[in-house]
């Protein structure tokens, strides 16, 4: 059989698992690395999209969660908890089902996309909306995990980073070497930390000749790393990265500095433009936060800061179906027609 076996089996020797670890998997990872024609033309580079929305619950979180839930199960946990802007909770809820664990979820009230809420609900997690932002949720989740019998599965749990680093392995395995630049959105900063770890491990072991420059992009209303101070009231339409005090802040700065990269910010307007470009011109439907990577790349290219001929990978972190409001917003309602081919052809513009 040729079915992808899930990232723990595929990269077992590079992960902290043993024969005693019960592998909890939905066969995550092995996601498409799609050549992006329009982005390549615009930048003069070879641009690829690492489409993480193709994971089982529709985001890259599944990479970390297969590890976090497997290790929680191995340690004998009965329950897990996470704070989330939506995707972590969707993933934790699904993997907890597979493991037979209780899943508790803390989300910022009114600030997570409907699709993600639906996932946490349908997978049977215990959800609380917290009267606060993501950073408040994480503080509360940490406190609960320290004082009650419940294991924390946020990316402050190092095994989450271990799982997520496999995306860098997959990219090098596909391309034959690391790209020149790797671009991704930054929220709590776990993912940029994980990719950097993955790239470094492959280079150290001779599986890549180099490491890429790491380019991270925050939303301008939620850009503590760029602004140099926590943001007390983070704002952005990209709710997944509406985070004012990232837990992996220092690791993200290390990834930036050690790789010769950068962390910058993009406006909601730039995010939405990239979101629409990806869908309308590349055929790839991502959620708004995911488009921050592409928005950042385009902004740098327009500023003349991207040399032609480079190989660039943008991670698009979550599926567009998670948060379809932005696809529908501002678009005209499709017209209603009778069951009549000529009328339909006319409205479709097929007669001229
Ligand atoms: N993109 C999406 C779609 C996300 O859901 C997240 C984070 C990020 C990017 C940023 O990744 O936090 O590792 O820097 N979502 C978390 C959650 C916070 O709760 O689902 P990061």
Automatic annotation (TrEMBL):
Q: Respond yes or no to whether keyword Lyase is given for this record.
A: yes
Where would I find the Tryptophan synthase beta chain-like PALP domain in this sequence?
24-318
What is the name attached to this protein's record?
Threonine synthase
EC number assigned by the record? 4.2.3.1
| Family matches, as Gene3D superfamilies | 3.40.50.1100
Family indicated by similarity: Belongs to the threonine synthase family.
As its record notes, the protein acts as a catalyst of: O-phospho-L-homoserine + H2O = L-threonine + phosphate
The pathway noted for it is: Amino-acid biosynthesis; L-threonine biosynthesis; L-threonine from L-aspartate: step 5/5
Task of the protein: Catalyzes the gamma-elimination of phosphate from L-phosphohomoserine and the beta-addition of water to produce L-threonine.
Q: Where are the transmembrane segments?
A: none
- Organism, per UniProt? Kitasatospora nipponensis
Q: Which PANTHER family does the record cross-reference, listed alphabetically? A: L-THREONINE DEHYDRATASE CATABOLIC TDCB (PTHR48078:SF6), THREONINE DEHYDRATASE, MITOCHONDRIAL-RELATED (PTHR48078)
Query: Cofactor(s) for this protein?
Result: pyridoxal 5'-phosphate
Which Pfam families does the record associate with it?
PALP
Q: Supply the alphabetized keyword list.
A: Amino-acid biosynthesis, Lyase, Pyridoxal phosphate, Threonine biosynthesis
Q: Which gene does this sequence derive from?
A: thrC_2
Q: Which InterPro entries match?
A: Ser/Thr_Dehydratase, Ser/Thr_deHydtase_PyrdxlP-BS, Thr_synthase-like, Thr_Synthase_bac/arc, TrpB-like_PALP, TrpB-like_PALP_sf
């Amino acid at each position: 059989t040729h079915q992808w076996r899930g990232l723990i089996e595929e990269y077992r020797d590079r992960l902290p698992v043993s024969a005693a670890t019960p592998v909890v998997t939905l066969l995550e990872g092995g996601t498409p690395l799609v050549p992006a024609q329009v982005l390549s033309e615009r930048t003069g580079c070879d641009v690829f999209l690492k489409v993480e929305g193709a994971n089982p619950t529709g985001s890259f979180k599944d990479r970390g969660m297969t590890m976090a839930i497997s290790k929680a199960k191995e340690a004998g946990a009965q329950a897990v908890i996470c704070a989330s802007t939506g995707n972590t909770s969707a993933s934790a809820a699904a993997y907890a089902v597979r493991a037979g664990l209780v899943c508790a979820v803390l989300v910022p009230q009114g600030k997570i996309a409907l699709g993600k809420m639906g996932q946490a609900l349908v997978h049977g997690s215990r959800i609380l909306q917290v009267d606060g932002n993501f950073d408040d949720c994480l503080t509360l989740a940490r406190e609960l995990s320290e004082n009650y019998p419940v294991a924390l599965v946020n990316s402050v749990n190092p095994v989450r980073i271990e799982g997520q680093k496999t995306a860098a392995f997959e990219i090098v395995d596909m391309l034959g070497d690391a790209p020149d630049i790797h671009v991704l959105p930054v929220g709590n900063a776990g993912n940029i930390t994980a990719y950097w770890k993955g790239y470094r491990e492959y280079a150290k072991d001779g599986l890549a000749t180099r490491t890429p420059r790491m380019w991270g992009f925050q939303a301008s209303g939620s850009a503590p790393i760029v602004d140099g101070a926590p943001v007390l009231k983070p704002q952005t339409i990209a709710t997944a990265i509406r985070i004012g005090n990232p837990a992996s802040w220092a690791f993200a700065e290390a990834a930036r500095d050690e790789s010769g990269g950068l962390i910058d910010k993009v406006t909601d307007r730039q995010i939405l433009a990239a979101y629409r470009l990806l869908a309308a011109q590349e055929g790839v439907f991502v959620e708004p936060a995911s488009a921050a990577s592409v928005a950042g790349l385009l902004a740098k290219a327009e500023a003349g800061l991207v040399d032609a001929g480079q190989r660039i990978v943008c991670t698009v972190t979550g599926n567009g179906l998670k948060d379809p409001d932005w696809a529908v917003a501002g678009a005209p309602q499709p017209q209603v027609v009778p069951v009549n081919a000529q009328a339909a052809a006319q409205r479709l513009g097929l007669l001229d």
